[in-house]
Amino acid sequence: MLDQLLIGAILIGALVLFVWDKWRYDIVAMLALLIAAALGLVPAQEVFAGFGNAAVITVAAVLVISHAMWRSGVVDALASLMKRVGDKAWIQMIALTTITTICSAFISNTGTMAIMIPVALQLSRSGLGHASKVLMPMAFGSLLGGTITMIGTPPNIIIADIRHEALGSSFGIFDFTPVGLSLAAIGLVFMWVTSRWLVPNTTSRDAANSPYDMSSYITELWVPEEANCVGQTLFELESKIKDNFAIVAVKHGKAVTTAPPRYYRIKAEDVLIVEADTETLQQIIDATGLELNADEELADRFLISAEVQVVEGVVGPDSRLIGRSAADLRLRHRFGVNVLAVARQGQPVKPNLANIRFKPGDVLLLQGDAEILTDVFRRFGCFPLAQRSMRIGGVKKLFTPLAIFAVAILASALGLLSVPVAFTAAAGAMVLANIIPLRELYENVDWPIVVLLGATIPLGGALERSGAAHTLAEWAFVVSSDAPAAVAMTILLVVTISLSNIVNNAAAAVLMAPIGLNMAESLGVAPDPFLMAVAVGAALPFITPIGHQSNILVMGPGGYAFGDYWKLGLPLTMVLTAATVPLILWFWPLYG
């Protein structure tokens, strides 16, 4: 009994820390594992056994394959078809959500959304209307797509592996499809019909406007001979002004330098193109003797050149920017990148721009060398939102990754190879075929997810070994003792959905699967329906933005507040909850 109380206290503490979000979820999971090991709840030889688990290897391989498919332009090719579906907003919405759902069945939700968000924004600027009306349904569609196949989402991979350990055989890659595809169809139709009323119509992106008007903050300052900044470097000038201030271009005669280096020495009769608000401009003029020479069209003329671009991007859920500011990171000094603007929940954040602590979902407007900006986005875990050139390439470039992926799916579906072996081999083949460069192989594995899984799998074992999972199952059995087994399954489903909305859905699957197995054993029914209920519950966190990375990614571009998600997410969750149990029982009988 003491072991049950201890593992329960550790898991509850971990859940509290997950929700608090002060420490990243992989750190919390590892801390919980070490505490459990120190208390003897996890045997010494099993503490790090989770990292060798087949589910962890499969998740890593699927992430590599997803990036290779994204990089080769397979999803881009599908996204480019959106321009051909017609100019009616409702048709475009159906097409966007459908293609996002289909892609997410085979490619990571986050990777799919990284491609589809810019497509939706581009369509919104050319007639779709408010992007907010479609971005949330797209994010939810990506979650629905993950339920269709075993590789669609990490919880399905985990559930398949847990079944293998408990029953000796795993779920197949398409065993999830009957229930998952049915739920995806129901969810999509529900969103098509109701999103007009349930999704907020934010003002973050009307037809052609960003959430910030840069022309209001870009100004010319002329350098007279008597100005006290003549001979100083741009760094010295910027250091005098502690508020939001950046020099984005320098004009001397007919020569224009966009995103000038900080060591450039200011000359008399230079024209500095600066980004600053009115109060800061007055500070600059008073301190330096520069003269104002405003021009309303400066943003278009000086922010962009052949080498220099201005690109919007959204801060990803695991970005290295989170909790840090441009000043902390020294983006201008290290990379020559200017942070021109920041928008949060669709509204511009104006004061003290250099010191703003970035949050997941923030939209940044960055200026710099085109190649460097690409590296900065990749290095810091951000996703570009500006219109991009498609990476479609030739038929050969598209055919090779599709062929490798199809062979892996076929080999695993026919039982020729196990899923971990098939997809690890596919990931290796894509590296050998140079679809994904070797240097990007490990960069695009979501290591926090890998660590989370490696740490929580032994905790799930401790929950089972201590008898806590059996005790919880008995409680659920008592609650539903006079009702059909379907009621117990519904309770399991609702608890899992609730958990997945506040913690990582992979962790929810690891923790709830042993409880589902024990509930099935207590009721004397087949375990597969209960495992399917956990898989569905873990894969569909619609109510909060923190439930999944896809939800966070659309928060900034869509201008959503935290409380906007439940308006569509709660009714959608209720509809799918009502549909899930009958569908599971139809395809996976209790006494099969």
UniProtKB/TrEMBL annotation:
Pfam families: CitMHS, TrkA_C. Residues 205-290, 297-383 form the RCK C-terminal domain. The chain crosses the membrane at residues 5-21, 27-44, 51-70, 90-123, 135-159, 179-199, 398-425, 530-548, 568-588. GO terms for biological process: potassium ion transport. GO terms for molecular function: monoatomic cation transmembrane transporter activity. The keyword Repeat applies. GO terms for cellular component: plasma membrane. It is a multi-pass membrane protein. Keywords: Membrane, Repeat, Transmembrane, Transmembrane helix, Transport. PROSITE patterns: RCK_C (PS51202). It is found in: Membrane. This is SLC13 family permease. It comes from Pseudidiomarina gelatinasegens.
